[in-house]
Structure formats: C-alpha cells, structure tokens
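User: Hi! I'm working on a homework problem where we have to compare a predicted structure to a textbook description. Could you give me the structure for the chain below?
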Amino acid sequence: MKLNEKVRSYWEKEPCGTAEEIIGDAKPLSREWFNRVEKYRYSIEPFIFDVAQFKRHKGKKILEIGVGAGSDHLQWAKAGAKCYGVDLTDAAIRTTRKHLALHGLKSNLKRVDAEKLPFKDNTFDIVYSWGVIHHSEKPEVIIAEIRRVLKRGGLFIGMIYGRRSVVAFKYWLKHGLFKGRPWRSFADVLWNHFESVGTKAYTVPELEKMFGDFKEFEAQPIITWHDVSKWPVWISRLFPNKWGWFIALKASKQSNK
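Assistant: Happy to help. Predicted structure tokens:
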C-alpha cells in the first residue's frame, strides 16, 4: 500500500480533531458535536485567527487543502470568501459539507490527493493548509501545486510541523531513549509514531528551501499546548517559540510568473 493510501485509511476513521474525548456524547455531525470540535480546536490553537486573518480576505477565492472537520473552512465561509476545499478522505468532505450546511453555507468540496490538484493555473487568491502537507508522501509536490494554482501575487497561508520542537523531543524520549534506542532520530520517531504513518516535520531552513520558488516567505515557530502539556508550568514557561511544534507560514507568488 502506498503511503498516501495508508494516510487516507488512517484519517477516514476519524477526521482530525473529532476524537471521542473531544466530542463526548454529542450526536455525530450535530450542531453540538461541531460546537465541541470548534471549542476544543480554538482553545488550544487560538493563534489560528491571527495567522489566517479570515476577515481580511472577504470576497477572495480561497482553496483549503485538508479541510478536516471544517472548522477553519467555516471561518473562511463566514468571512465571505469564495470557498473551495479538498481533502484526501471522504469523511472530511462529508463532515465539512455538513458543518457548513448547519450555518446555511456552501463550498466547492472535492476528495482528491493534493499532489495533483484538479484546478487550472492561476486560479486562487489564497491557498490555506493548516497541519496537513507534512502527512503527504511528497510535500514538495503539493507546494509546487500550491504555487501553480495561486494567482500571480497570490498568498499561501498555513502551518507545518517543526522538527526542532519540544513535541519531537518528547516523542524521542518516549520511543527512543526510554525504549533503549537513543540512536533513533526525531524524524524516524515522528514518521512511525505521530498520527498517521509518514508524518514529517521540518526546520525553518528546510522550509525556506521548499518554498524557494515563491517571491516572499515567512516562517514563525509557535509554542503550542502540544509542547507544554505534561511539563511543570514553571519549566514550560521557559520554552522559546523557536522550540514550537507548529511553524506558521506565509508565502507569496511572484506577480509576473
């Protein structure tokens, strides 16, 4: 089975952020179910609003790669964006469509592999992808596709996992050092033990290289709940952002190419 098929199989069972400990006894796909999904997401990742700035992009044509449970997609739709969304799984497309419908909103949603986007060149003002690209077999191919479908001067906004992070260190302790295998790399541990198989994480210089064909590129590591959980508060307060599990990204396409 190819990697992307394994990734799809994993996320078909449960779109990101919809675990039982989050949604509890709420009826699946009900308004209360979605409310719990959103409340949890934005309580532990409130900085999404600062990075995405949904309301600033009213009227723009946006594509979200990896819609998941549709929480961010709903924010784009509420902000008045012209929404398109893709995901590797039928579960995410079905869930996101229902999420928007509960608010009287719609989006052009398709289940596709983002390594080959079914859109013409220079189509979107914004491409958005939060915590998705690093699950693909070939993230660099998705990045090339993002650049292709962006309009000249268009903007990519997103997040990719950071390898030089507290989360990566914690997973290395658990699956490397404490298992008597300290030689395992952070990359190996994350690939085999974090979420779906094949999960990757990057350094800022690596991401700068991957987005090298874009005109401008910004990368900002962010310390998250995932980093500070299970540490004493007094220790976690000392963690600098550069150790953050999330790397927020913005990249703009050249206006003449």
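For your comparison, note the following. Residues 3-164+200-252 form a domain with the Rossmann fold fold (CATH 3.40.50.150). The chain has one domain: 3-164+200-252. Good luck with the assignment!
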